[in-house]
Every structure is written in C-alpha cells, then in structure tokens.
Inverse folding.
C-alpha cells in the first residue's frame, strides 16, 4: 500500500495554492498601488465633483511642436463628445457672472494646456468669445500647441510692469488661427522670476480686465 505522498492531499494542496495564491498576489499588488489610475480612485480619495473623463488623444508627439487642438467643428467623435460633456458640466458649476476657468496640476505633462485649449475651442464653437492665457511661464508651450509661429509677445510683458498698461496687454493678444471666437495670450519670454510675477497683483488686474 502506498503511504507517501498521498495523492488526495497533494491534489488538495495544489487546488488551495492555485486558488488562494493568485488572490493573495492580486490583493498585494492592489495594496502596493500608489498611482491614481481611474475615476474610481478619484471618487474614493476626494469629494470634489468629477466633471468629465477626457480620453488620451492618440497621435500627439509631445516632443514636437505640433498643433494639438483636436476639437473640431462639425465632428462628433469620442474626444469631441468628452469636451462637450465637460463644457456642459462646467456650465452647472460656474456661478452667475463667472467667466474664468483655470486648468492646473502639480506634474508637468499631465495635459493642462491640452485641456485648456480644447475646452476653449469647444466654447468658441458654441459662440462664446474665448481667450486662452498661457501662464506656464517657465516652459511655455501654448504657441506651439496652437501651431503658431514663435513670438516674443505674451502676458509676461504686461506682468513685468509696475502699473497696469491695458493697451500693452491687448497688443500681446494674437488670433488663434483656428476659430474667429478664440484668441491666444501666450506666456512670452521666459522671465528670471516666474513665481514672483504670478503671485503679484498685476496678474489679477490682467485676468479681471480680460474677463
């Protein structure tokens, strides 16, 4: 009579290992996750309203200066619908009289300029007059994103002044080249003191005047 190993015990141990080891591995990987990977993570971590899910636009090369405004007139694909949904939901969030929308994040390359430009385009298609202001004055990309020629025009020229000069501010604005309702105010030259310029009162004056 066969004493060892017992087939039934070996099969049972294999069954237990085959069922519980993958489960333990998946749970362990889930516990070790440190990135926000989807809408459910955001809903779990914050009570802030989530206005839209914007899909990643394929075919964009961040290393190249190429136009990345993907919202177009008379088109109805996934990304157009996503920005239409964002536009509609923002309308419910904004208070009466509010006209300024800021996109921001703490990590470069997360899509701040991309979202701002395409949301502006979506609003322009609705008949709204829109101006996109580039405030990433450390690494400005707004001009390249709109496919415009490099220019020294920009909001930095206004922010560097000691007193508000609104004629100077208006002279820095350039047409988007995409839609008649949308203009662009790029960052301009890269200053040595970007943090000071963005925290000063001149920026508040500029935003108030533009709005």
């Amino acid at each position: 009579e066969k004493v060892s190993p017992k087939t039934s015990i070996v099969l049972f141990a294999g069954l237990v290992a085959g069922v519980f080891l993958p489960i333990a591995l998946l749970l362990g990987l889930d516990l070790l996750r440190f990135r926000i990977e989807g809408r459910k993570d955001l809903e779990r971590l914050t009570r802030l309203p989530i206005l839209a899910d914007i899909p990643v636009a394929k075919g964009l090369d961040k290393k190249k200066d190429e136009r990345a405004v993907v919202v177009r007139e008379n088109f109805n694909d996934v990304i157009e619908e996503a920005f239409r949904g964002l536009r509609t939901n923002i309308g419910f969030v904004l208070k009466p009289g509010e006209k300024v929308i800021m996109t921001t994040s703490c990590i470069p390359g997360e899509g701040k300029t991309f979202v701002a430009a395409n949301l502006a385009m979506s609003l322009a298609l609705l008949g709204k007059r829109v101006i996109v202001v580039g405030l990433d004055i450390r690494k400005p990309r707004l001009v390249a994103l709109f496919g415009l020629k490099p220019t020294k025009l920009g909001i930095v020229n206004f922010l560097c002044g000691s007193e508000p000069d609104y004629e100077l501010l208006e002279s820095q604005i350039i047409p988007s080249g995409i839609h008649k309702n949308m203009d662009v105010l790029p960052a301009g030259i890269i200053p040595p003191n970007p943090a000071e310029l963005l925290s000063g009162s001149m920026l508040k004056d500029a935003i108030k005047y533009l709005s």
